[in-house]
Predict the 3D structure of the following.
Amino acid sequence: MPTLDWLNRAHAFTTAAQVPYRLLESVSTHGEPASAQGNLLIQGDNLEALKALLPFYRGQVKCIFIDPPYNTKSAFEHYDDNLEHSQWLSMMLPRLQLLRDLLSDDGSIWVTIDDNEGHYLKVLMDEVFGRGNFVATFAWEKDKGRRNDTDISSAHDHVLLFARERRIWSQKRNLLVRTEAQTARYKNPDNDPRGPWLQGDNGTAKSGSEALRFEITLPSGRVVVPPSGNYWRFAKTTLESAVAEGRAYFGKDGNRLPIIKRYLSDVQQGVVPRTWWTAEEAGTNQSAKRDHLRKLLPEIEPFGTPKPEELLSLILHIATNPGELVLDSFLGSGTTGAVAHKMGRRWVGIEMGEHAATHCLPRLQKVIDGEQGGISQAVNWQGGGGFRFMRLGAPIFDADGCIHPEVRFATLAAFVWQQETGTAFDPAHATPGTPHLGTHSVFDSYERLPDERQVPISPKTPPPTPLAQGELGLQAPGALPSPEPAPTPVLRSRTAYYLLFNGILGDKRPASGNVLTSAVLDALLQLHARTPHPEAPLVVYGEACRLGDARLALARVTFKHIPYDVKAR
């Protein structure tokens, strides 16, 4: 696959790995404390903040929306949007890498951009997310006006859409709600008891086979055939079935070319999104700035090109369901968090500089207070919920690799779990109040062949070949093929993880709770016997080990030393 090359490319690919893990410090809680736990506004550099989120949210984010600097060679008050091209690519690459790791398998990332870097960004994202996971480029009509002080007046931005795993995402994405105008296209001129219908396969086409050239006798008695060089759009058997089932219409006088009905009651409950989003359906920069932000926060000068709530509403409707997690690491004026909150999604927003507090915080406070701008009336927003305002804190590890004294058991547990399993730590799988972090199982997926042999399915297996048009049968237009049967999972490995840290066993003395001694090992084995998978071997993290290799091997224990075996980056 072709790739981009630029100055410092090789270094850019290692940047994310070199970023230190940092603590997230709570500054304040807003709204309902219980609801606030699921929503985070983080102030700080977004690269470091994304790295700090990995242990807790890796593979958990359903939708990422980002509106990064466009590199338009012009200065913005809040951003340096005049980066040299190679610097811009080096800035974007490590952030995209971390965002990819945060996405769930059925998740998607949406990125707004213009022509300055849009085509380069597409190739860069091909490399990070895989070209096969590219879904579409949307054209969003950001401005209905026309500028006369330039050679070409730009009217639209691009929205690039990539899935984490397109085969999975395509089965999970939502349709858009059918509008009244779209529903009104379905008529019932013959009072069909099955209700309104729209013409489906009908008329003729300029391509086809000789099998699609046949005589049809209309109810009026007139015999018709396609003109020379044309063919019916339907097979003879398809028409015969439609006539027998009362799904064919020949006009009120029975003398029109046949129409095969497609009933409103039979089509999918919604419409497939299109790649052209008008200002009427998705809003504009100016409508967001003039009609919403200036009225909502009149004392604050808004960003120059804020994204409208209608645009984010479209994206979140397609990509998410209520309760799922949305992330924006270039939060700007806070639109993503505001829309996600109003639509009942959980959200994490990251914004650097003081405007995280001066712009995002007051706007999101207005949201929980029940402000009625943007999409509020469309979703019947009445206020409620909450969020936590957080800042990036000190690195988890100092320059010598020692763990920061403010690190607590739950925090280090999340880092250890992510390091070992590559997944986010879920406290629900741990045993509360004990060193047991959980048991991680790894499965291989296999495809069963006709001769009953099983072969591994590569993660890079290409998506199934789409059905040809003639094979769609009565499938509704735009409907996706039925998902393939789930592959047979085969267990590859299973490991239990334990952490001796911060006096989890009730004794902080070096010779006891944080050190693996014979007595501590006996306690761990008794605990392990009560877990759902007592047969799994153990990996134990601790400050020191007082046992020999033979004793550890007999207990099926691998010991790892804190802090030396915990990754600082």
